[in-house]
Model the fold of this input.
Amino acid sequence: MAEHKHIYERAVYYDIVFNRDVSRDVAFMKAAFLKYANRDLQSVIDIACGPGYHARAFATQGARAVGLDLRPEMVAYGQSLVGDNPNMSWLSADMRNFKLDAPVDLALCMYDSIDALVTNADMIAHFQAVANNLTPKGLYIIECIHPRDCSPYHYGIHKYRGRRNGVSVEVHLGVNRPIFHPVTCVGEVEFEMRVRENGQVQTIRERSQERLYNAREIELLAGNSGALEVVDWLGDLDLNQPLDNSAQSVSMVAVLQKKAV
Done:
């Protein structure tokens, strides 16, 4: 499994760039769960969660929430932000083989984090681990960049920036203009993080493998897992926006459901 270790272990700088209001996302996930599971959402796991933006939001609203991330630095930073909330717990673990103390209704994986799973075996093991930790009819929601905006032959350079307490951080993805293998759709992607703090500039560069999945691959690998099936494709975190090539379709969102035993 690929990971940008040196970028993601700098959790505070990551948070300066990527922190955002996720209340709209949470409302969508609650509505999606009600639609497909026909009951109210009570518990979630935020996979590859970073500082746990979604997990913390769910916990604040009363759901039992787990934040899972491979990097212990991210988990520790998320814990430092949450305060004393009995609904919130954390787990530093591999997304391919984790075990929760109790199953949850919903799993989510946002911000293209699924691209760290670079082989079919990785993805199948991940799907099986997710399903094993879901309640009956539980959902798994995956958010990816729209293929129109990032593909094996046009990855692009994606830039993000933020500023807090005098610290300025920029993250540039794809600065090496990666080319992806035509069979595996795996490429080596270079990240660059630039930090301006106390009059000093620090640049961190790192390369890691990523896989760009298309919708059919996700459907087939979910089927091969024997544990999950795709029940909807959306073009945004919006039940009324189908995945298409319109301007309103800004991402590729897979809604998967645990198969009945």
